[in-house]
Amino acid sequence: HNAHVSSSHLVDAFLAAGRRGSFFVSAHNPIETSDHARLQPIVAPAGIARHATHGLLCSGAMCDQHHYSASLHPPKARVAFGSTFYEYLGAIAVFGDATDEAALLLEAHQRNLAKRHGVHVACVTPDRNGALVRRPPATCASLLAAAL
What we know:
Blueprint: H1 7-17, E1 21-33, E2 80-95, H2 100-115, E3 119-126, E4 132-135, H3 137-147
Antiparallel strand pairs: 1-2, 1-3, 3-4
Protein backbone atom coordinates (compact mmCIF):
# COMPACT_ATOMS: atom_id res chain seq x y z
CA HIS A 1 0.00 0.00 0.00
CA ASN A 2 1.12 3.59 -0.32
CA ALA A 3 -0.24 5.06 2.92
CA HIS A 4 3.06 5.44 4.73
CA VAL A 5 2.59 7.65 7.78
CA SER A 6 5.50 8.93 9.85
CA SER A 7 5.53 10.00 13.48
CA SER A 8 5.79 13.61 12.28
CA HIS A 9 2.54 13.20 10.30
CA LEU A 10 0.80 11.90 13.42
CA VAL A 11 2.09 14.70 15.65
CA ASP A 12 1.16 17.34 13.07
CA ALA A 13 -2.38 15.92 12.83
CA PHE A 14 -2.73 15.97 16.62
CA LEU A 15 -1.53 19.57 16.83
CA ALA A 16 -3.82 20.61 13.95
CA ALA A 17 -6.82 19.29 15.91
CA GLY A 18 -6.28 22.20 18.29
CA ARG A 19 -7.59 20.32 21.32
CA ARG A 20 -6.02 20.21 24.78
CA GLY A 21 -4.48 16.87 25.64
CA SER A 22 -1.47 14.60 25.47
CA PHE A 23 -0.25 12.50 22.56
CA PHE A 24 2.31 9.70 22.51
CA VAL A 25 3.76 7.99 19.42
CA SER A 26 5.78 4.82 19.73
CA ALA A 27 7.55 2.45 17.35
CA HIS A 28 7.15 -1.29 17.83
CA ASN A 29 8.87 -4.52 16.76
CA PRO A 30 12.46 -3.56 15.97
CA ILE A 31 13.94 -4.45 12.57
CA GLU A 32 17.72 -4.68 12.79
CA THR A 33 18.60 -6.81 9.76
CA SER A 34 17.29 -7.37 6.25
CA ASP A 35 16.20 -10.93 7.05
CA HIS A 36 13.14 -9.58 8.91
CA ALA A 37 9.88 -11.00 7.48
CA ARG A 38 8.50 -7.50 6.82
CA LEU A 39 11.27 -6.66 4.37
CA GLN A 40 11.32 -7.72 0.74
CA PRO A 41 14.27 -7.49 -1.62
CA ILE A 42 14.39 -4.39 -3.80
CA VAL A 43 15.80 -6.30 -6.74
CA ALA A 44 13.14 -8.38 -8.47
CA PRO A 45 13.61 -11.00 -11.20
CA ALA A 46 14.60 -9.85 -14.68
CA GLY A 47 11.85 -8.32 -16.78
CA ILE A 48 9.90 -6.76 -13.92
CA ALA A 49 9.17 -3.06 -14.35
CA ARG A 50 9.71 -0.24 -11.88
CA HIS A 51 6.77 0.89 -9.76
CA ALA A 52 5.47 4.21 -11.14
CA THR A 53 5.17 5.93 -7.76
CA HIS A 54 8.23 5.03 -5.71
CA GLY A 55 10.55 3.33 -8.20
CA LEU A 56 10.92 0.01 -6.40
CA LEU A 57 10.93 -3.07 -8.57
CA CYS A 58 7.75 -5.08 -8.33
CA SER A 59 5.12 -6.70 -10.48
CA GLY A 60 1.40 -7.26 -10.01
CA ALA A 61 0.89 -9.49 -6.98
CA MET A 62 4.43 -8.76 -5.74
CA CYS A 63 3.60 -5.08 -5.17
CA ASP A 64 2.22 -3.93 -1.84
CA GLN A 65 2.77 -7.15 0.07
CA HIS A 66 3.54 -6.99 3.76
CA HIS A 67 5.61 -10.12 4.40
CA TYR A 68 8.52 -11.77 2.67
CA SER A 69 7.94 -15.28 1.41
CA ALA A 70 10.78 -17.29 -0.10
CA SER A 71 8.24 -19.10 -2.31
CA LEU A 72 6.98 -15.78 -3.82
CA HIS A 73 9.91 -13.39 -3.67
CA PRO A 74 13.50 -13.56 -4.86
CA PRO A 75 16.24 -14.41 -2.34
CA LYS A 76 17.53 -11.60 -0.17
CA ALA A 77 20.87 -11.02 1.46
CA ARG A 78 21.19 -10.67 5.22
CA VAL A 79 22.41 -7.17 5.98
CA ALA A 80 22.76 -5.72 9.46
CA PHE A 81 21.54 -2.12 9.54
CA GLY A 82 23.53 0.64 11.22
CA SER A 83 20.45 1.73 13.14
CA THR A 84 17.15 0.20 14.17
CA PHE A 85 13.95 0.52 12.17
CA TYR A 86 10.53 -0.52 13.43
CA GLU A 87 7.69 -2.53 11.97
CA TYR A 88 4.88 -0.15 12.90
CA LEU A 89 3.89 2.98 14.77
CA GLY A 90 1.38 3.12 17.59
CA ALA A 91 -0.21 6.27 18.95
CA ILE A 92 -2.49 7.26 21.77
CA ALA A 93 -4.19 10.60 22.28
CA VAL A 94 -5.82 11.73 25.51
CA PHE A 95 -7.95 14.82 25.06
CA GLY A 96 -8.87 16.98 28.03
CA ASP A 97 -8.25 15.89 31.59
CA ALA A 98 -7.10 12.40 32.45
CA THR A 99 -9.95 10.03 33.29
CA ASP A 100 -10.02 6.44 34.52
CA GLU A 101 -10.59 5.32 30.93
CA ALA A 102 -7.63 7.39 29.73
CA ALA A 103 -5.45 5.90 32.49
CA LEU A 104 -6.39 2.39 31.34
CA LEU A 105 -5.50 3.25 27.75
CA LEU A 106 -2.17 4.75 28.80
CA GLU A 107 -1.37 1.67 30.88
CA ALA A 108 -2.22 -0.57 27.89
CA HIS A 109 0.07 1.59 25.76
CA GLN A 110 2.90 1.09 28.26
CA ARG A 111 2.34 -2.69 28.33
CA ASN A 112 2.35 -2.82 24.54
CA LEU A 113 5.64 -0.92 24.47
CA ALA A 114 7.24 -3.52 26.73
CA LYS A 115 5.68 -6.51 24.94
CA ARG A 116 6.73 -5.40 21.47
CA HIS A 117 10.14 -3.96 22.41
CA GLY A 118 8.85 -0.51 21.55
CA VAL A 119 10.32 2.92 22.02
CA HIS A 120 8.79 6.37 22.20
CA VAL A 121 9.54 8.39 19.08
CA ALA A 122 7.45 11.49 19.76
CA CYS A 123 5.14 13.03 22.31
CA VAL A 124 3.19 16.22 22.80
CA THR A 125 2.01 17.39 26.21
CA PRO A 126 0.76 20.70 27.60
CA ASP A 127 3.23 23.01 29.26
CA ARG A 128 2.46 24.84 32.53
CA ASN A 129 0.39 27.40 30.62
CA GLY A 130 -1.59 24.74 28.74
CA ALA A 131 0.16 25.24 25.38
CA LEU A 132 0.93 22.00 23.53
CA VAL A 133 4.66 21.34 23.22
CA ARG A 134 6.59 18.73 21.22
CA ARG A 135 8.79 16.90 23.71
CA PRO A 136 12.07 15.06 23.15
CA PRO A 137 11.49 11.28 22.78
CA ALA A 138 13.77 10.63 25.78
CA THR A 139 11.27 12.41 28.03
CA CYS A 140 8.13 10.66 26.75
CA ALA A 141 8.28 7.67 29.13
CA SER A 142 8.42 9.89 32.23
CA LEU A 143 5.69 12.16 30.83
CA LEU A 144 3.51 9.10 30.17
CA ALA A 145 4.09 7.85 33.71
CA ALA A 146 3.16 11.29 35.06
CA ALA A 147 -0.06 11.24 33.04
CA LEU A 148 -1.21 8.03 34.76
